[in-house]
Task: structure prediction
Amino acid sequence: MLKNNKGITIFSLVVVIAILLILAGVSLNSGFSVVDDMRVGRIITNMNLVQAKIQVIHESYSFDKNQDTLIGAGPYKISSTNQLENITLSQQEMQMMADNAEVSVADVLNWDWYKWSRDDLERQNLAKDMLGNNEFFYVNYEHAEILYSNKTSKNNVNYYSITGLKNSNK
Result:
């Protein structure tokens, strides 16, 4: 009688182990996506904080027209190949920024961009650890747009702009 149950017991054990491995794989996969969503959420939050600060700076600049009011190195322009220093923007992301500002993509190419470093963040009473070493924010004061020098992948698409990241949820 025991000989007949031995095969069934081993088979049952193998089935249970297979089911546990599948469940563990599903749990790990969902855990990784949660971590990735938190990372992207942190980047968006940091960009929102910078965006609020650049809107205040732009208001001050609109009042006094003093170029010294504008923080950061620059101005820089996006090239006709959608590049700004080490950032290459997709045509889709350029279109999102244009749509958000209610202008054409050609107009976006004429925007002035200022490069914010960790020191610029600190001078604005923002946490400089928003940026890693050799990372930058590029800000456009007039349209309150921000580019992050380190591409951020969301839903298997790379984004640099706050507009692109926010619109990727739609």
